[in-house]
Each structure stands twice: as C-alpha cells, then as structure tokens.
Design brief:
Oligomer: single chain
Number of strands: 5
Number of domains: 1
Helix content: 40-55%
CATH class: Alpha Beta
Number of helices: 8
Strand order of the largest sheet: 2-3-1-4-5
Shape: globular
Order of helices and strands: EHEHHHEHEHHEH
Radius of gyration: 15 Å
CATH architecture: 3-Layer(aba) Sandwich
Strand content: 5-15%
Bound molecules: shikimate-3-phosphate
Distance between the termini: 13 Å
C-alpha cells in the first residue's frame, strides 16, 4: 500500500494524528524530523544552529526521497517540507498527501510556549507565525490530495483521514 503523508503547519498535529492512524491501521508511523534527527544524531534545533536552515532543507529532501521508497507508512512531514516543490514532486501521484488544516489562532495557542522550533525562537513570534502561515497555506493546499480539518480530537481526525484515503 502506498504511504499516507501528513502535511501542514507546525503544531497542526501531524505527529499526534499520525500515531493515532498507526493505532487503527497496519501502517507503521514515521516522523520525518525524528528520522532526520536519528540519522544526524542531532536535534533539528542543533542542525539549524550548526549547519543552517539550507542544510536542514537538503537533509529533509533526502529524507523525503528515502521514505518515498518505502510502503505502508504513515509519515508526519516537517511543517516546511511541503512548501518546497522538489519534496512535493517526490510524493505526488504516488502517496496520498493529506493536509491537516487548522486555523492560525489555534496554532498560535498550541505553540505559545514552544522552544523546539528554530523558526519560532524570536521575540516577534506571533507575527512570524502569521506571515509564514499565510505564505504557506496555499502551498499546502496545492500539494494536498485530501484536506482534513485538524480541529477535532486526534482520534477522530485519524479516523476521518483513514476513511477519506479509503474513498480516494
Ligand atoms: C519546520 C517545522 C518543523 C521542523 C523544522 C522546520 C518548518 O516540523 O521540520 O523546525 O519549516 O515549518 P514540525 O511541523 O513538526 O514542527
């Protein structure tokens, strides 16, 4: 079976919902950031600090290519992954790309105390989030095969995704 790839903004619930899908299907869950961290033996923040964002994006591209070779996975992508056409092209037409759509205000609330995401460690965090969100949402939407609201519980959202993928 082809993979289900979750995309969407930081904090939209890709990892939590992905783990819930793993529970109700025979798919294996893989978190793309964790996959990169394991390979580099460093956290995403350390990679940004030591090598810069561009190097992280190249690692992310390599991770996309490697994961797309596998089957029957549920993959939680990083929030930036599907803003790059080269990554979209790796999955498009083969795996099912699912956007977890949640409003900016919910994201702001969820990420208010976040310390793990290098792009948000700045004094004007809310403004940065707003700009990124507005720039990225159309890109996510054009990449996605399926758009699902991420506002419900992770369990309900997972069930909705499994059903939508089944119907596609
Ligand atoms: C990023 C999102 C992060 C992580 C990195 C960059 C982004 O993943 O890949 O910090 O550009 O939005 P999450 O969406 O899991 O936070």
């Amino acid at each position: 079976m082809n993979n289900i790839v979750l995309c969407g903004f930081m904090g939209c619930g890709k990892t939590t919902v992905g783990k819930n899908i793993e529970r109700i299907t025979d798919r294996k869950f893989i978190d793309m950031d964790a996959f990169i961290e394991q390979k580099q033996n460093m956290t995403v923040s350390e990679i940004f600090d030591k090598y810069g964002e561009q190097s992280f994006r190249d690692m992310e591209f390599e991770a996309c290519k490697e994961l797309a070779q596998m089957n029957n996975l549920i993959i939680a992508s990083g929030g930036g992954a599907f803003t790059f056409e080269r990554n979209v092209n790796v999955f498009k037409g083969i795996d099912k790309i699912v956007l977890l759509d949640i409003p900016l205000e919910a994201i702001k609330f969820r990420l208010r105390n976040d310390t793990k995401r290098p792009l948000l460690q700045r004094p004007d965090k809310d403004k940065a989030m707003e700009e990124l969100y507005n720039k990225r949402l159309p890109l996510y939407k054009s990449a996605a095969d399926i758009v699902i609201s991420g506002k419900g519980t992770p369990k309900k959202t997972a069930e909705a995704i499994v059903e939508a993928v089944r119907q596609k």
